[in-house]
Description:
By secondary structure, this protein is α/β, with parallel strands linked by helices. The chain has helices spanning 15-18, 33-43, 57-65, 67-70, 108-114, 116-119, 137-147, 212-219, 238-249; strands at residues 2-7, 27-28, 31-32, 48-53, 72-77, 84-90, 96-101, 124-128, 131-133, 151-158, 164-167, 173-177, 185-188, 192-194, 223-227, 232-234.
Amino acid sequence: xxxxxxxxxxxxxxxxxxxxxxxxxxxxxxxxxxxxxxxxxxxxxxxxxxxxxxxxxxxxxxxxxxxxxxxxxxxxxxxxxxxxxxxxxxxxxxxxxxxxxxxxxxxxxxxxxxxxxxxxxxxxxxxxxxxxxxxxxxxxxxxxxxxxxxxxxxxxxxxxxxxxxxxxxxxxxxxxxxxxxxxxxxxxxxxxxxxxxxxxxxxxxxxxxxxxxxxxxxxxxxxxxxxxxxxxxxxxxxxxxxxxxxxxxxxxxxxxxxxx
Length: 260
């Protein structure tokens, strides 16, 4: 199953770094947060990724182009007047990565629509390129398969400025609205599972996925929530980046389940 990662935004709230690189390429522990998210999915056996790039998209492409070189021990031999390379050890993840330029100003729904041809007519996963989580993705998928609806999102309980969910006793999402500073409720943390019918809810580049498509899913009873009571944290600013780096350095990063 393919994993789609939204990685096209400029990240203006962490401009001290995002002026030089896309927000998902900002590093924690020496690796882009995008890499950490991919490692999460890979831990559960999902190794095919479609990255919806946009702002400074060439940086993402260049990083993956150099991934083999930067994760291998290599001898460069010029003694015969040519460049001979010998690979001694390779520490690559067994990933298939498609990086797509989905436009500079395209909204989230538009970015998803633009990668439709790479997804095909099949179920896929979707998340944001700026947040890490310790959700059990296999259990999330099993929950999605159990209810037969078009969409499942992962919901967490935190006091944050995110899209607010009203969830019924049957775990169906009853309403979806924009954030409010006074709210302390279930929020959309990403980590979604979607059926291909989701594309029928996205009109074009100007579609914000978290607005019209989700609202229409709610109206039709096609949006379900998987309640996650563990760790989730986005990286919206320098303070949050520093917090994630401290957790990683101290060896207490809940999202890091993989071995070195």
